[in-house]
Design brief:
Number of domains of chain B: 2
Distance between the termini of chain B: 65 Å
Mean pLDDT of chain A: 86
Number of domains of chain A: 1
CATH superfamily of chain A: Winged helix-like DNA-binding domain superfamily/Winged helix DNA-binding domain
Low-confidence stretches of chain B: 1-7, 198-205
Mean pLDDT of chain B: 79
Largest interface: A-B, 29 and 35 residues
Oligomer: heterodimer
Largest sheet of chain A: 2 strands, antiparallel
Helix content of chain B: over 70%
Structural class of chain A: mainly alpha
Order of helices and strands of chain A: HHHEHEHEE
Distance between the termini of chain A: 37 Å
Amino acid sequence: MRRKAGSLVPLEVAILEALIQLRRHGTPEAHGFLIASQLRAIGDERRLTAYGTLYKALDRLAESGAIEDRWEDPEIAAADGRPRRRYHRITLAGEAARAAAEPIPRPHVVTDRGTATS
Amino acid sequence: MRTIDAPDPLTVAGDRSVSVIRAWVALYTRGLPEPLAQARRAVINGDLWDEAEAARWLDETSGLPRQRWSRWVRGLPADISWRIAHGRIPNRPRRSDMRISKVQLAAIGGVVILYAVMIVGLMASPSFREWAGMPVATLGLGISFVGLLLAIPRPQGGFIVGVLGTGLAFLAMPWLFPLYLPLPIVLGYRLFRSQGVTQSSATGT
């Protein structure tokens, strides 16, 4: 079944909600794994969103203008001895899309290390 | 400071998940524009790293391989659809002999159904179960079936496999010869038409 242009699937709404909650708690942009962890907290689920599912949804959101991406400075990544991250930030259009969608209960926030706080 | 060239800290003893996931990402990004493929590989690699770091931080490394396998398997359909959305599979030449008309497709479909009915009927029939020729007949029909499906992308290969299978089935059940006749006719027609198209496109006509 094809979906309407511009419409959001539940996962995309949840990603926008995750980014809003993270920003509210002092993380204005988040990398993929942090978003996956936050999604798990929001949905009160045991499993993390699958790699393919998550990054496909993030790509779609970026294409629709609901989020913006930027690659981390390679020197920062090299200094930490890890691969570069791609950070995602919600846009005004994304906030509007989130506001127009159904509410998602249970606000939790996940820190960068994966621990959950409410 | 740890460098990216250092031994891979993502590896858990005995776990092959990271290498499998990286190989899979390399496979489905193959042939895409390099910036796009590189970006995809990088985000997955970064995610694997952050996931491992979080597991280490929470002292949950024992469940990490299972979590990775689960995330990988559940994401396979999305990976495939993402790949399809970003371009066709590389190194698969756009050969004119792979074109198939509606008539050819309908003919192959009809014979596929015929063979499927024969295979199912053969295997379900109590009178055939004890028959010595049953394995050869089933094998022949099965190979013919594969040949029919193969003929859609590869007319020549499908013709060879299909005729081989039909020959086997004929050896086992010569009395059902009229039922096998449509297969070489359909596959031969498909091969003939595709070669005609190839030659005309090669000569520019």
